């Protein structure tokens, strides 16, 4: 994208604030943002979003996590609520069909086992450092291959429009104006 997606403006509000408001609108009270410049610093640097979830789990012990990236400007509270409810009822990882994130992730033995096996080699590392110059961590696909999960058919696939390029951001802006 060339700039911090969290600071992109969706109307009068930046994407981070918009995303946090969506979570608040569906009743989530404890909203944490992972990353070195936010509430939960990375335990392992440059290891991706699954490592961000790992960092949250190292600092807190939530019953579940609803991971929402800041690059979904068309996401709605109704769509997130659908995901959250399905995840709570099934007590399984829950995501929209064809998209691994947003992700409802219960904090259970399956998740703990995956995280400990995946990040165990890094436990002796200095917090915030990624040993051996590694740049990437595990994918959501790798996580979901190890935990019970269900995929939900979204009411509208447009809610999942992801903005990773300036062109995609312009397309999204045209849709919410």
Automatic annotation (TrEMBL):
<dbReference type="Pfam" id="PF12804">
    <property type="entry name" value="NTP_transf_3"/>
</dbReference>
<keyword id="KW-0460">Magnesium</keyword>
<dbReference type="GO" id="GO:0016740">
    <property type="term" value="F:transferase activity"/>
</dbReference>
<feature type="domain" description="MobA-like NTP transferase">
    <location>
        <begin position="1"/>
        <end position="86"/>
    </location>
</feature>
<dbReference type="InterPro" id="IPR029044">
    <property type="entry name" value="Nucleotide-diphossugar_trans"/>
</dbReference>
<keyword id="KW-0808">Transferase</keyword>
<protein>
    <submittedName>
        <fullName>NTP transferase domain-containing protein</fullName>
    </submittedName>
</protein>
<dbReference type="InterPro" id="IPR025877">
    <property type="entry name" value="MobA-like_NTP_Trfase"/>
</dbReference>
């Amino acid at each position: 994208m060339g700039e911090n997606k969290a600071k992109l403006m969706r109307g009068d509000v930046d994407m981070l604030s918009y995303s946090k408001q969506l979570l608040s609108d569906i009743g989530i009270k404890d909203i944490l943002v992972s990353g070195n410049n936010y509430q939960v610093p990375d335990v392992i640097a440059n290891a991706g979003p699954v490592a961000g979830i790992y960092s949250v789990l190292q600092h807190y012990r939530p019953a579940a996590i609803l991971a929402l990236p800041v690059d979904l400007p068309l996401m709605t509270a109704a769509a997130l609520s659908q995901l959250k409810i399905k995840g709570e009822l099934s007590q399984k990882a829950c995501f929209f069909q064809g998209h691994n994130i947003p992700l409802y992730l219960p904090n259970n033995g399956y998740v703990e086992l995956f995280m400990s096996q995946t990040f165990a080699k890094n436990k002796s590392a200095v917090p915030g450092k990624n040993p051996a110059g590694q740049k990437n961590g595990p994918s959501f696909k790798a996580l979901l291959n190890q935990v019970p999960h269900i995929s939900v058919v979204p009411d509208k696939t447009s809610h999942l429009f992801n903005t990773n390029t300036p062109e995609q951001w312009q397309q999204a802006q045209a849709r919410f104006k």
